[in-house]
Amino acid sequence: MSGDTPLLTVRGLRKHFLVRGQSGWGGKQRLHAVDGVDLFVRRGETLGVVGESGCGKSTLARLLVRLIEPDVGDVIFDGAAVAARGGISVRALRRAVQMVFQDSLASLNPRLTVEATIAYAPIVHGAPVAEANRRARAMLAQVGLVPEQFADRYPHELSGGQRQRVNIARALALEPRLLILDEAVSALDKSVEAQVLNLLLDLKDELDLTYLFISHDLNVVQYLSDRVLVMYLGRVVEVGPVEAIYERPAHPYTRALLAAMPTMDPDARADEPPLQGDPPNPIDPPSGCRFRTRCAFAEAACAAVDPPLAAVDGAGGEVLEPDHANAGAHYASCLMSVAGSGHSRAPARIGVAA
Amino acid sequence: MTSPAVDIDSAPATPVRPVAASARGYWRRVGRRLSRDPVTIVCAAILALIFLSAIFAGHLAPADPYKTSMLDRLKPFGFRGHLLGTDELGRDVLSRLLYGGRLSLLLGVSPVVAALAVGGFLGTVAGFFGGAINTMIMRTVDVFYAFPSVLLAIAISGSLGAGITNAILSLTIVFIPPIARVSESVTAGVRNLDYVGAARASGAGLFSVLRVHVLRNVLGPVFVYATSLISVSIILASGLSFLGLGVEPPHAEWGLMLNTLRPAIYIDPTVAAVPGAAILLTSISFNLLTDGLRHAMDVRA
Predict the structure, then answer these.
(1) To 5 degrees, how large is the angle CA B185–CA A60–CA B199?
(2) What are the backbone dihedrals phi and psi of residue B252, each rounded to the nearest 5 degrees, phi first?
(3) Which of A224, B75, B80, B133 is deepest in the core (most CB within 10 A)?
(4) d(CA B43, CA B290)
């Protein structure tokens, strides 16, 4: 594989859940959990994924490790399509992509010791039990837990931070190349969270890992990520290098999220919430741009046209090609950054302006 | 704390552990907890005595449990070597109690074991796979809930006819729905926990996930629940015998003894109360033992 192929490429990934209607009777309704997501993760980088609760972040994570079957869409890992002819099997994918869950207690089997939990995956993949246990102890040491002290403990005998270290060790026991962290530090105390974040940074260097880091905490994402992807109602609304997203957010939703970040400066505190209300119901998402119902800049064009992911910097109007994984590219899905889109704030077309 | 800065030298040097140590460690823990629980130990001891006395009834019984005596009917405790008196046909009550334990315990335990196998399997399958399989199994099970358990046992026994095998069969059918229901709800709860997802995400096959992650967490609560049904089973079996649907005379069985001694309540209530006391003692012991087991087997407590 060439060094330029992204480690993970996702094209048009979609998952609609069929849910029972509100009355409990009649036909089922479609919940648009993940609705056409394109993304790529480059080797060795950390892609942060942010968004409100219910925007499809966790569904995306579960789709990527195939805990949920996607309706449509391609997942290409290291140049090989997953579960497709000529590609790699789901089992092979699960060796190379591992996941750490948010709830550190629920993600550990209460009946298994720490050692048995970590050794389970290598045993499943054919390692002899003694070898797997040795690996488990080595992994414990790697995540900063003394094997002699922790190997025989049960999950309920550990603190939240220790449990999440065990979860990380469990995920790393298969020597994956991509680690998906689904709100992995969100439930921890701030001081413990910082320790675990630093552990993650250390492990990334030592083990040559690539992270997909899902969080609703913008500070943590900024600290950890190379690139950031913003999700809203099952769609990608903006993606780009971390500095570009935090300093020059192009999508009104990203701006609102950043404005909602708590600040230490009392004078800079916002009195008004930057976003009003809840996201619309994903069972019946708005036409056109999904954010238009809460957007201060919404115009008639926004209801008619579904904005594509288009380049923000430089010449506007270029639509995202996931294959040309350019680490510096900054894309937003807003008509205001698409030239000639009909929105009054859209940039003029090149050539027309000249 | 989570800090890795622990002095490794001060950590206890553990020898190389045998591979299965973690599973054995769990049961050692359970044993240690049980040993600190006097009520459970006493109940276990009482049940052990009851089981042993039933097994060795042939050696322990002071008299032939079937030998009648028209002259010594309904004699009080201690009458001419009859430690617990005699029944309405002059048979030695203690001997009949010891022999009766065999059938009563058989009728108490075997339906529960059989129902645990069938109901546990049905419930786990329904809970784990969900969807149409769940609906099919659980709605069928629900049909049995339409009848009170005593009525159901009587109805099945009545249609199959009296006899020990039929009594066991009818009690098994009575116990399958509640055990299936409990297994189903526990399994459905476990199935959605992240550790099952993590196991699947690590590439484990269905069978391995079921065995290691689902069954291990389902078996404990279901087993404890099933144990609590043993006392119910003994009482229901006694009821069937009492109605003439279980064990037939002249066999000795506690419920049947209670039935045949019933008219004697007006002559000597103490003699009539003896088999009832045996049923009470056994079922209370099973209930308290169950509570103790539940507590000891819950690693989180």
Answers:
(1) 45
(2) -90, 125
(3) A224
(4) 10
Task: Report the distance separating Cα B287 and Cα B229, nearest Å.
Answer: 9
pLDDT in tens, B57-80: 778 777 777 777 777 777 777 777
Q: Is the CB of A106 inside 8 Å of chain B's CB atoms?
A: yes
What lies within 8 Å, CB to CB, of B176 at 6+ separation is B115, B118, B119, B122, B141, B144
Q: Cα distance from A115 to chain B (closest Cα, Å)?
A: 8
Q: What is the pLDDT of residues A58-102, one digit of tens each?
A: 899 999 998 888 999 889 998 888 888 778 888 889 889 999 998
Question: CA A173 to CA A120: how far, in whole Å?
Answer: 9
Task: Give the angle subtended at the CA of B79 by the CAs of B74 and B84, to the nearest 5°.
Answer: 70
Q: Which stretch of DSSP H or E encloses residue B131?
A: helix B131-145
Tell me which chain B residue has its CA closest to the CA of residue A121. B202
| Residue labelled with tokens 């809930």 | B145
Centre a 10 Å sphere on the Cβ of residue A278 and count the other Cβ atoms it contains: 10
Torsions phi, psi of B299, nearest 5? -65, -20
pTM score of the predicted model: 0.79
Cβ-defined contacts of B72-77 (< 8 Å, 24+):
B74/B264, B74/B267, B74/B268, B74/B271, B75/B271, B76/B268, B76/B270, B76/B271, B77/B270, B77/B271
